[in-house]
Amino acid sequence: MRMIVKEDRKSVVAWAIAFVLAALWLLIALLPFLYMVMNSFKGQFEMLVSGVFSLPEALNFDNYVAVINGGFLGYLLRSIIVTSVSLAGMVLISAFASYPLSRMKFKLRGFLYGLIIACMSIPMHVTLIPVFKMTTASGLYDTLWALPGPYVAFAIPMSVFILANFMKGIPVEIEQAAEIDGCGKYRTFFEIIIPLSKAGISTLCIYNGITFWNEFAFVKTLTQSVKAQTLPMAINNFKGEHSVNIPVILAVLALSALPMIIMFCILQDKLVKGMTAGSVKG
Amino acid sequence: MVNRQPTLSLQQRRKRSTAVAATWFLAPALILMVIYIAYPVVETFHISLYTWNGISPDRTFIGWGNWETLLQDSRFWQAFINNIKIMVLSILIQIPIGFLLATFLDADSKKFNLFKVVWFLPLLMSSVAIGFLFQYALATNGGLISTISNLLGGKNIDLLGSPDRALYTVIGVIAWQYIPFYMVYFLAGYSGFDDQIYEAALIDGASRSTFIKVIGMPMMKPTIISACIMSLIGSLKYFDLVFVMTGGGPGYATDIMATYMYSTSFKYFKMGYGSTIAAGMFILITAIAVLVRRVLTGKEER
Amino acid sequence: MKFGKMVAILLSILMLIAAIPMAATAETLTLSEEPITLTLWDIATEDPQKSISDAAVQRFMDAYPNVTVEVTHTQNDAYKEKLIIAMSSGQCPDIYIHWGGGPMNEYINSGFAADITELFETYNTVDFLPSAIEQCKYNDKMYAIPYGGIGGCGIFYNKTIFAEIGVEVPTTIAELEAVCDKLVAAGYVPFSLANGSKWTGSMYFMYLATRFGGTEAFAKAVEGTGSFTDEAFMYAASTIQDWVGKGYFPEGVNSLSTDDGQDRQLIYQQKAAMMLHGSWQARSMEADQADWYKANIGYFAFPALEGSTYPQNIVVGTSIGNGFSFNCDGEKLKAAFILATQFFNDDIYNQAQLDANTIPSIVGMGDTIQDQCMQQIWADFSAAPQVQLWYDQYLPPEVGEKHKDLCQDIFGLTMTPLEANQALQDAMAAYNK
Predict the structure, then answer these.
(1) From CA C352, how far away is CA C147, in angstroms rounded?
(2) Residues B97 and B179: beta-carbon distance below 8 Å
(3) A246 and C283 in contact by Cβ < 8 A?
(4) C-beta contacts of A188-193 below 8 A and 24+ residues apart
(5) Which of the other chains make 3 or more beta carbon contacts under 8 angstroms with chain B?
(6) C-alpha to C-alpha distance for C23 and C19, rounded to whole angstroms
(7) Do C198 and B247 touch (CB under 8 A)?
(8) pLDDT tens column, B50-92
(9) Dihedral sign (CA C55, C59, C65, C71)
(10) A8-43 pLDDT, tens per residue?
(11) DSSP string across C388-408
(12) What are the residues facing C324 on neighbouring strands?
């Protein structure tokens, strides 16, 4: 572990300042989340009268009960399925694609890499109508399986961009050594490249996991019955034409964030381990 | 195959096997992208040549008409400038702060686990919740910023409702949401370092700050560059929070290319022109991304 | 068999005779026995609207076992986009709701709304408000069946605050301004307005223009025989800016969002005394806190402008909460028509709507409503010689959106009245070409 070796006065001051700033940032990051949870315990009238920034009068779980009785667990399950399927697909496919783009020399490499990166700049909303048409034509419309396809496809450009960058950093010697040992391209990929890219992959999982989890535009367009919808659509169940019960929606949002926080803690732990185990010792 | 061409040198064979392997590795990604991205993009360019309300079975071919309109559309170019402002400020705010947070955490990631999890929270919150909470936090009367201003003896401050400040306010909120991403990204970048380098540097008597300056930053350069590119592209096609918080208002003060495209396509019943805006966005963003990437990395790659 | 036939003929003659007094209204529409499946899209995601809609469909399916209706409820914000995507991909539902106005005309022009003029003239049994029928027409043909309920807008006010500072309900704009001045002096914000949502501020503009120039000024400006730079609109825009200057609206008016409840918050916190808003606010406020709402909130129509020669009791709003349009023909269209007129809009449906503080667009329907604000809204609506449809719904979609965007410039004082109205006129002229 990296430790502070020189404990001279200068570094103590530096650390003190760093900690003050860190604590300040802690507050900035935490407060909105805290308010979200706090207001989810209020009634709508109470929240509007006493203001968003006051403590709730009582720990009132009515909103949470309403949310859970409103089919929350079904939405949760479907979200877990869609997110994990999409994540698995995304990791596999973008790792596959990143490997040759970062570590092989072939004719179209520059062109293909450029093409994939250009796809990062596509505004998602223009694809809604074509994707809708394809989904209805393929019979996937209004099923859970309509979602992983577009999710993975839209995650690939950025994932490849990040992962190819990571893989570039792996020293060539390791790969050459493996080749001399008789490893084929495929074994090298699974046994050397993937384990060494762990940190990059977990970053991808964190970022894309959140994106898939909160994704709204596609699920809104490609599904219409509850049996095919994920958590972001649950919010709509508590929204009327003109009136919105905000505390209930905050309860939905707080409950939806919980699995992601747990996920993050686990993956972060992996990332930390990756730091020591995955670091290149040559 | 090899038997038929005995003259193939080892190098050539290797080249060919590399090409075959590359094809297999790339195939799934390319197939998926052709289906879900390439086809819609071609379709978008195609529709941009028509006048079409988006729903009618009839559409009128008008050639480059929409493109000529786009070139002279002051609202589009104003939106583009707003996007550029978001881009520049996002890179200037998000990446340095993300880098600092990651550097802090990297000093001792176990001890600072609480910091890491809490700092990460903003990225987790959905745009709906962020939009709602900041709507209240930034309220002119009774919001947090106004309250602080009042405590310091100032007046109430109208942030989201003021054409001069609304865009910067939204940029601030976007930064708040995305800084954790760059934090995690840089943290992963740090993890690629060999601990031995750091230890060696310490033995040589380097302080942490000199280590970051002399060794850390240069080693992180590729990571920082790719973070800049991501932030750049992300800000140029940004949609979410602007749509939720201001809808492009007041007036067109926070109107950006994606919100303009969305309104044109889905609210004004002008899908043809909306597609032109989208295609124009695609061209502009790609051009800027390629250009910036050349400038940032060009020297080394060539 | 002969005898049977005779009886049948006799019976039908008898029935015809019996039906004569009613024949003035409608004939009975019959369906064949063939199995039919209808898809229906609406926006009733939340109770009570959701159960009211589901119940109507269920009653229909019980009465016509050969018909299956597949209902999809989609939340308002997502609905319009979803409908466009479905239409553009040839997946338009058989029955769908809309808000009338400009978008409805687009649906009709694109071939997604069947002409139901004949069906309606022959078979309709519901005594819809004339203004509601008018809103379902385009080029003198009928394309939709009203349902949902009327939505006028007017001023909700805090009775307690009015009593406290000793003012009466104003009947003229001059009196309204006097009330506002007193409220400002007493430390209240006269009007709660969340104009981040844009259409909320449009209500002030519409009422002021309509009080000054009737529905005529607007109709002329749309046709192109008049202009949005005419006096009526100049009066509206400059009065609003005058009121902004006098502090009649909350600070940061363009930043507040009605979707997030920031306008009702000012009312509930008793910081603001009045709120010009749609009649559905009665429902929302009652849902938030019924006792408080009943004890404190009253309603009055937007006051009259002295000296104007136009009727001063025109209501701004809509006579149809929503319309059902039909993208089908033959037996399916007949079935859809029966569903829309006889099951939505029947007694059970209407009573359920009334209980939910919504007044169906049917003659005499609001007479029994309990809620005090709604009683007043209904009285005003019934007495109104005309209903001025929301500008943003009446105008072609692009111009309507422009109008809403400009409302922020007017309230934010970032444009002069002339600049704003000229910009709207330019958009209108560009559309008319």
Answers:
(1) 13
(2) yes
(3) no
(4) A189/A95, A189/A96, A189/A99, A189/B25, A193/A95, A193/A99, A193/A103, A193/A167
(5) A, C
(6) 6
(7) yes
(8) 999 989 888 999 999 999 999 999 999 999 999 999 999 999 9
(9) negative
(10) 666 788 888 888 998 999 998 998 888 889 989 988
(11) EE-HHHHS-HHHHHHHHHHHH
(12) C97, C145
| B189 vs A contacts (CB less than 8 Å) | 199
Residue B298's pLDDT band, with cuts at 50, 70 and 90, is low
Number of domains in chain A: 1
Are C270 and C325 contained in the same domain? Answer: no
Ramachandran angles phi, psi of A60, nearest 5°: -100, 115
The answer, yes or no, to whether ipTM is higher than 0.90 is no
Please list every residue in chain C whose beta carbon sits closer than 8 Å to the beta carbon of residue A44: 261, 287-288
Gap between the Cα atoms of A248 and A239, Å rounded = 9
Residue C334's Cα: distance from chain center in Å? 26
Length of chain C as a residue count: 433
DSSP 8-state code for residue A216: -
- 3-state SS, residue C425: helix
**Residue B244 structure tokens:** 């939720």
Confirm whether A61 is domain-assigned.
no
Q: What single-letter amino acid sits at A115?
A: L
Both C158 and C35 in one domain: the answer is no
How many domains does the structure of chain C reveal? Answer: 2
On whether any CB of chain B is under 8 Å from the CB of C406, the answer is yes
> What's the pLDDT tens digit per position in B232-283?
998 998 998 898 888 888 989 999 999 999 999 988 999 999 999 999 999 9
Mean pLDDT for back-to-back runs of 10 residues, chain C (433 residues) = 51 45 61 90 87 94 93 87 90 93 92 94 89 91 91 94 95 96 96 93 97 95 94 97 96 90 93 95 90 95 94 93 92 93 91 89 88 92 90 92 94 96 96 87
Selecting from 1.10.3720.10, 1.10.20.140, 1.10.10.10, 2.30.130.10, what CATH number does the domain B76-257+288-301 have? 1.10.3720.10
Range of the domain at A80: 72-277
